[in-house]
Amino acid sequence: MEKSPANLLVPFYFFLLGLLILFSLILLVQGVTGVDKSDSATNMLFIMTGITGLVSTFYMIRRYQVGVQRMLKEKKVAVLTVEECSKCSYRAVRPFREGDYVYGYGDECPRCPKGTGDTGVENRMLITAIYLEGGRQEERY
Amino acid sequence: MQTILFLGQDNTGIGYIINILYMAMFLILVFWGEKIQTMIRLRDIEYALERLRLMRDESVKFTKEKLKKYGKEDINRFLDSYLEFVTIPPVDMDPAGVVWKLDHIVKTAENRVRGEIKQIIPGLDESQVLNIMNLFEASYALNYYYKVVRHYYILSKKTSSYILIIQLQAILPQVMMEAEAYLGALQAFSSGQPIGDGAGALVAARLMRGGEIFDIEKDNVYTVKNIQGRKVFFMKAKGPGGAVGTPGDALMKLSETENFKIIFMVDAGLKLEGEKTGSIAEGVGAIIGGIGTEKYKIEEVATKKTIPLYGMIIKMSLKEAITPMTKDVLNGVEEAHQLLLKRIIEKSSEGDAVMVIGVGNTMGIAQ
Predict the structure, then answer these.
(1) What's the ipTM?
(2) Which of A72, A92, B114, B222 is 20 to 30 A from A21, alpha carbon to alpha carbon?
(3) pTM, whole model, 2 decimals?
(4) E strands, B317-360, where?
(5) Which backbone phi and psi does A121 adopt, to 5 degrees?
(6) Which runs of consecutive H residues, i.e. helices, occur in A8-120?
(7) Which residues of A13-25 are buried (b: 16+ CB within 10 A; e: fewer)?
(8) Do A98 and B324 touch (CB under 8 A)?
């Protein structure tokens, strides 16, 4: 069980698709050139089967492409930290940094002058929200 | 008039081959149809099982990587043993008092894990210990999913039970969704980001701002504010570590001295498919998840003293509940905050004592 060939599935899938394209093309060529000169219905059936095979193969490839694109898109998410200055109401949004938490202190306010107290938080903005930007909100259904 | 013949109907070589193929397929499907279906279904389960194993390994590797900075090799060994940790529920043949027994067992388990982490890495503050515990729990959940699915996979393979295979395959999408949610939660747990489940705690935290904070019972904080003549108690788990607190214990303690006229609870709730994330549902009852012990305590207090229990649910999916809080959930928090203030005024009178409990994991949310 531990050595499952899951990573071989994708090449195998594409190998099958390749075979399907090949057979579809052969059928299509045979249909167009006329495998049975006297029977046009058989030729038509060959052409239809070939076209159906090609269309379904390209549809499957497209579905795979869309799946990969969606996976890549899902990874492009960022957690953002919203900071607000309690004195001048200046608001800033920046990427989350480790150690940030809601109602903790963030960066210094760029508008307000530096404080003189010894607590070190006089000039710092308050973190009012931390949220995920760009995350998929709804599952497909 | 010429009759149109389809493949297999004519007398050419291809026709014969197709006829033989049809006959062969018919016989194969009659005798080995179920066997083939079983093989296909087992193949699907095996693929899902492999993905679960990869998720479990990834989670353990990620956790160990994050704990490297503490330079303690023992924590890795503890994680490995924690994955097999068992908590035995109490006997329920005589149900009287089973809640208190379960409460005791769960608290003992939690204290033990917390104690061992503190013992291995002595310099940690309470928030860091809780965040490490959350990371451990994600790995534990993924390991559990993997082991249970593997158990039924091997069992169904051994017994060739078609029904067992179908049942296992039917629940797999749900299991995979939950496992992926846990895997997605690792980053949030490791860096202490607020998660969707913290929506209730965030509503309480917003309402608590500016008040004096008091500790009460294990991992809870509360503050008292005057809102239009009402004495309003706001309570949540103590942040910013990943704690859920013991709101039931805290409510029992506070109700010894205060005569609450009404209790409001806000929590994150699982939405049904198709419902909008961040939408609010109001209702009555103790709105709190978990194993049920805290819910029991809250209901006990409310019932004994005939206090109405009102609640609000901020809806989200399981994935949104355990991964970083999304913008939609944050909008729901804002809406619930405004609605709660309105309801406090509507449902109580001047001079009343009101309790507001923000339920949920308060990771990344202080007070």
Answers:
(1) 0.83
(2) A72
(3) 0.80
(4) 353-358
(5) -120, 0
(6) 9-33, 40-75
(7) eeeebeeeeeebe
(8) no
d(CA B119, CA B75): 10
What CA–CA distance (Å, rounded) separates A10 from B210? 57
Cα(B155)–Cα(B42) distance, integer angstroms:
11
Instruction: Give the Cα separation of A104 and A83 in Å (integer).
Output: 10
Indicate yes or no: CB of A4 within 8 angstroms of CB of B327: no
Q: In angstroms, rounded to a whole number, what is the distance separating the alpha carbons of residues B135 and B190? A: 6
* DSSP β-ladder status, B260-270 and B309-316: parallel
Cβ–Cβ below 8 Å for B5 and A100? no
Parallel, antiparallel, or unpaired for β B309-316 and B280-284?
A: antiparallel
Which residue reads 């353990």 in tokens?
B60
> How do residues A48-102 score in pLDDT, each as one tens digit?
889 999 999 999 888 888 887 777 666 566 899 999 998 888 999 999 998 899 9
pLDDT in tens, A8-59: 677 888 888 899 999 889 888 888 887 666 777 778 888 888 999 999 999 9
d(CA B326, CA B347): 31
Give the tokens for residue B291. Answer: 């194993």
CA atoms of B293 and A113, how far apart (whole Å): 51
- Nearest neighbour of A41 by CB, restricted to B4, B188, B367: B4
Q: Do B324 and A132 touch (CB under 8 A)?
A: yes
Cβ atoms B267, B313 nearer than 8 A: yes
- Rounded to the nearest angstrom, the minimum Cα separation between B240 and chain A is 7
Per-residue pLDDT band at A119 (split at 50, 70, 90): low
